């Protein structure tokens, strides 16, 4: 059963120079108990899709069209007060940089307890007890001491664990993780990813995991959505992307071939995708990836492809989706 379903979502910024199409026709589905990995370069619309789900908008931003359904209920039409009952309770988010997400002048206990008292109606004493339990659950060795600490007294890995504890305090049905390990070293990153997988299986929480790292997607995700210029260019089960399929979007291929491999004997330079993501106010005509695609032809530069099914649960936005390069 689908826990979250996004249908043809368009979220734009209204600026003096024109509309910036941050999310430009995105359709996604997250099943109960599964992890959807959303991957793409910076500026591809990953985080803005997540912010659209929670309606965490800037003043000049809004949903222009499209629908968002959560747990069978349409939430794209809810007002701010109605959304406040969903945020942190049914849908939680872990942001990329915990130091900017945690309030430096409040203790860890104050910040976790606030969520519990607001959504779960716990007393101050009950919330403090639950806060310590959540810190234990995210494998913090000295939860009582950390509960009394301020964020600046903790390491980056500890702060990220606190953010996970806060996000999971109300047992949400959906957890959005927006590049939660980018600022961490490799060892701590592995611990955080393992922790999130363990908690997913313990609590049955679905996860939307946003990252630019396909290696993390391979480790974390059940399904993958590859985004480019505010659009989904490929969506498939993770095994289709990493373990063989006769279809592959050229952008996905480019992301895969740019990953270094420890067991590879290659000594030449890694393949890189030429150019950069186009500015949202100067999007190319036709396929948005055509200027950077080594397979592009005249049709690609003039006409925009639709997202079409090429197999069971596998869709690609490309006129010629058959795999042509070496993965």
UniProtKB/TrEMBL annotation:
Compartment(s): Cell membrane
Q: What is its main location?
A: membrane
Residue intervals of the ABC transporter domain: 4-254
Organism lineage reads as: Bacteria, Bacillati, Bacillota, Erysipelotrichia, Erysipelotrichales
- NCBIfam families for the chain: oligo_HPY
Topology versus the membrane, per the UniProt entry?
A: Peripheral membrane protein
Source organism of the structure? Dielma fastidiosa
Q: Write down the PROSITE patterns for this protein, in alphabetical order.
A: ABC_TRANSPORTER_1, ABC_TRANSPORTER_2
The UniProt entry, under Pfam families, shows: ABC_tran (PF00005), oligo_HPY (PF08352)
**UniProt protein name:** ABC transporter ATP-binding protein
> One cellular component GO annotation, for this chain's record?
plasma membrane
**Family recorded in the similarity comment:** Belongs to the ABC transporter superfamily.
Per the UniProt entry, what are the Gene Ontology biological process annotations, in alphabetical order?
A: peptide transport
For this UniProt record, the keywords arranged alphabetically read as follows: ATP-binding, Cell membrane, Membrane, Nucleotide-binding, Transport
Molecular function via GO = ATP binding; ATP hydrolysis activity
Note the PANTHER family from the entry: DIPEPTIDE TRANSPORT ATP-BINDING PROTEIN DPPD, OLIGOPEPTIDE TRANSPORT ATP-BINDING PROTEIN APPD
Fetch the SUPFAM superfamilies from UniProt: P-loop containing nucleoside triphosphate hydrolases
């Amino acid at each position: 059963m689908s826990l979250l379903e996004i249908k043809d979502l368009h979220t734009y910024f209204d600026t003096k120079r024109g509309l910036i199409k941050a999310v430009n026709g995105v359709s996604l589905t997250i099943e109960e108990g599964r992890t959807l990995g959303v991957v793409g370069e910076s500026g591809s619309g990953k985080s803005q899709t997540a912010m659209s789900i929670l309606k965490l908008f800037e003043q000049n931003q809004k949903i222009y069209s499209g629908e968002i359904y959560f747990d069978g209920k349409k939430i794209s039409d809810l007002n701010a007060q109605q959304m406040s009952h969903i945020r942190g309770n049914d849908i939680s988010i872990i942001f990329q940089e915990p130091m900017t997400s945690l309030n430096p002048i409040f203790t860890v206990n104050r910040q976790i307890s606030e969520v519990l008292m607001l959504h779960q109606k716990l007393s101050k004493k009950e919330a403090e007890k639950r806060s310590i339990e959540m810190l234990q659950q995210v494998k913090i060795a000295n939860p009582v001491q950390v509960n009394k600490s301020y964020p600046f007294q903790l390491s980056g890995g500890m702060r990220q664990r606190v953010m996970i504890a806060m996000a999971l305090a109300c047992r949400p049905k959906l957890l959005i993780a927006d590049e939660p390990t980018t600022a961490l070293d490799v060892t701590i990153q592995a611990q955080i990813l393992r922790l999130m997988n363990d908690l997913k299986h313990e609590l049955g929480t679905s996860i939307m995991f946003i990252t630019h790292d396909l290696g993390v997607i391979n480790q974390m995700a059940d399904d993958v959505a590859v985004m480019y210029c505010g659009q989904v260019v490929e969506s498939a089960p993770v095994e289709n992307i990493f373990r063989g399929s006769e279809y592959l979007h050229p952008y996905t291929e480019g992301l895969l071939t740019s990953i270094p491999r420890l067991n590879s004997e290659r000594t030449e330079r890694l393949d890189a995708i030429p150019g950069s993501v186009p500015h949202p106010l100067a999007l190319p005509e036709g396929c948005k990836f055509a200027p950077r695609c080594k397979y592009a032809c005249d049709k690609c530069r003039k006409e925009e492809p639709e997202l079409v099914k090429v197999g069971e649960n596998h869709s690609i936005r490309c006129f010629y989706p058959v795999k042509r390069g070496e993965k």
